[in-house]
Design goal:
The chain is α/β, with parallel strands linked by helices and about 190 residues long. The protein has 2 domains: about 1-30; about 35-185, Rossmann fold (3-Layer(aba) Sandwich), CATH 3.40.50.620. About 55% of the residues lie in helices and about 10% in strands. The two termini are about 35 Å apart.
Length: about 190
């Protein structure tokens, strides 16, 4: 009798996990994307990675008055993103660099230290749409005393472009990274 009950529970858990996996595969836009909508903050945080879509989105938000300061993060990317922002019309004096981080976790930890040092209380995270949920969760986890928003780039949003630029692989990898950040660092993506 106990074995039968255990098998029913195991089957229920398995089917629930299967349903979640299918939902994640069928609806990645809804699962992975967090967009706070029109907001204002003390700074825009342009996370490293991607191509020009992240700094392009940050330049657009800066020009719209979303924040008076831009912080570019990531080894190598911070410098190239800064150069793009300057070409896009963001004054060099309004751009700070955090050039040491290699991961989203380090983006958060190093940038939060900069925000605290500058006495800034809020920031808008600018990253790619499929990275926005984990990035926002990471910043909120490591900076609970600060207010964070998400305004992602919608680069390669339509599925029709995914195979051309490899976005499908990034989307699949993001699910594993979200799980890894939850298990390793306690960063809950929900």
């Amino acid at each position: 009798m106990k074995l039968r009950r255990w098998l029913k529970w195991a089957a229920l858990v398995f089917l629930s996990l299967l349903a979640l996996a299918l939902a994640a595969a069928c609806f990645p836009h809804q699962v992975l994307t967090v967009d706070s909508g029109p907001v204002q903050a003390d700074a825009l945080l342009v996370l490293g990675g991607g191509g020009i879509e992240r700094p392009a989105r940050a330049a657009e938000l800066f020009q719209a008055g979303a924040a008076p300061l831009v912080i570019c993060t990531g080894t190598g990317d911070a410098v190239s993103h800064r150069a793009f922002l300057i070409r896009a019309g963001v004054p060099a004096a309004d751009i700070l660099l955090e050039p040491k981080s290699l991961t989203t976790r380090e983006n958060a930890r190093f940038t939060i230290a900069m925000l605290h040092a500058a006495h800034l209380k809020s920031a808008i995270i600018v990253t790619t749409w499929y990275h926005s949920r984990r990035a926002l969760a990471c910043f909120q986890h490591y900076g609970p005393d600060l207010k964070f928003y998400s305004r992602p780039s919608y680069y390669d949003w339509p599925r029709s472009k995914w195979t051309i630029h490899g976005t499908a692989g990034f989307v699949r990898a993001e699910y594993f990274k979200m799980l890894g950040y939850w298990l390793l660092y306690g960063v809950c993506p929900l």
